Amino acid sequence: MSILSGRFAGSLSCRARHLVNMRRAMETLVTEIEEYQLSRCRPYDEIPGPKPIPLLGNTWRFIPFIGDFKIQSIDQVSKRLHEEYGDIVKMGGLLGRPDMVFIYDANEIERIFRQEERMPYRPSMPSLNYYKHVLRKDFFRGNAGVIAVHGEDWYNFRSKVQQVMLQPRTARMYISSIEEASLAFLQRIAAIRDEHGEVPDDFLNEVHKWSLESIARVALDVRLGCLDENANAETQELIDAVCTFFVNVGVLELKIPFWKLFNTPTWLQYVNALDTIVNTTSKYTAAALERIRQGKDNANEPSLLERVLGLENDTKLATILSLDLFLVGIDTTSNAVASVLYQLALHPDKQNTAYDEVCNVLPSENMLIEGKHLDQLKYLKACMKETLRMYPVVIGNGRCMTKDTVINGYQVPKGVQVVFQHYVISNLDKYFPRSKEFLPERWLQASGVRHSFASLPFGYGRRMCLGRRFAELEMLVVISKILQRYKLEYHHEKLEYYINPMYTPKGPLNLKFIDR
């Protein structure tokens, strides 16, 4: 028996050595192929793009009055660069920042994502990185979450929370909480409409309130009352702070970084906004933690905070996760919902089809929504996908190259920030025929011409949006409830889209909500 055991162990040892040798051989082969490709590709300096000028590089293009790039119209700038230079464009000479290379080719984006390493780097956000790791390092203490964080710190945090955040079945446990917040939003719409059924100019802010209420209920199992007539002013301060953060981050990242030399007004507003977000969400989280510690009975599903604590028993980690959810979950989801409602109002035939589907799946307004109902709302999901194809809330995503890479036949060195221009790509006819038309039906056609990497509103891969499952669920529930009760119309001049801070219709969104 011992002889057989020895032979078996020896066999396993030989197999293990063989596998190790094979892996090393494959790694060597891949390295040799990459080096061969690099040697045969065109040099980095030949990538087309706008030429920098002495001293100011290309940063001058973002300076008011003299520059030809405006932060609020980066979508049009991106389209212009693609039309002028092609599928790969280099934007070099950005003061205080690495070069950026814009990619407009879905095949190249797929290849980069498929080869993603264990700890991919997003393009850095120096302003938020400085806030988390220098200015407020005592609060974060090396546990800074997933936004503007890279390397082992990011990987360790993400690994601990993604088990809770990215499972569809986990998100569905919160349908009832999200439905409650959505019903409160419907009551708010009824209260703010004028005699013609139109909502006021600041309707987007009301959608922000719904989004904040939804996040609080899911993340902390807390009812903030954002949509109440006598809502706490603190909730509006939090919404305003998140908007200020997003508006100012673009200025700090793309214009001349004077904030690194002295406290500019924009920088001070930015820091004050982040402090408000940190202090307010920490207060909400502390109250939720105290309730959990006291073991108070609760008939609802355990909050995300409780689920993370159950897995990791780390209150700091759970607190930072809550902060990240509030920081990036309010504006993004609410702008997406506002955009879908606007598109449905502009396309009454599509709205009617979605309404008929909702009525078939949920014949009564009083029916509680269940997961099986959401599975059947295929056309409404297609309307959401089509809106985010044409008007993605975040118009681009990217990676910072951690090694020399070949992209579109050019050598791209380590350290360059590669930006995937999703807005432009998803509005090209070569990926989506009749791309200028709102056609939700294209998402229901199995044989439709569609590249799976040509529309990525939530990103892809290891750094995909951590709150995607909850954002999609919140959108589906609230829009279905709105369609049940209201017909949407819009009777004003058609709005253009712009970035402020998310990609959203520019101007008052005076939608008309007509009782069904």
What is this structure's SSE topology?
Elements: H1 2-40, H2 74-85, E1 88-91, E2 100-103, H3 106-114, H4 126-135, H5 137-140, H6 151-165, H7 168-172, H8 175-192, H9 203-220, H10 233-254, H11 265-294, H12 304-312, H13 315-346, H14 348-361, H15 371-376, H16 378-390, E3 397-400, E4 405-407, E5 410-412, E6 417-420, H17 422-425, H18 468-485, E7 486-489, E8 497-499, E9 503-505, E10 512-515
Parallel strand pairs: 2-6
Antiparallel strand pairs: 1-2, 3-6, 4-5, 7-10, 8-9
Helix pairs in contact: 6-12, 8-9, 8-18, 9-13, 10-11, 11-13, 12-13, 13-16, 13-18, 14-16
Helix-strand topology string: HHEEHHHHHHHHHHHHHHEEEEHHEEEE
Q: Please tally the β strands and state the result.
A: 10
In DSSP terms (H or I, runs of 4 or more residues), the helix count works out at 18
Q: Which sheet architecture does the biggest sheet show?
A: 4 strands, mixed
What is the typical, i.e. mean, pLDDT? 86
| N/C terminus separation | 80 Å
Which strand order do you get reading across the main beta sheet?
A: 1-2-6-3
Describe the protein in words:
The chain starts with a helix and ends with a strand. The N terminus is likely disordered. It is globular. It is of the alpha+beta class. The longest helix has 39 residues. The strands form four sheets. Strands 1-2-6-3 form a four-stranded mixed beta sheet. Strands 4-5 form a two-stranded antiparallel ribbon.
Short description:
54% of the residues lie in helices and 7% in strands. The chain has a 4-stranded mixed sheet.
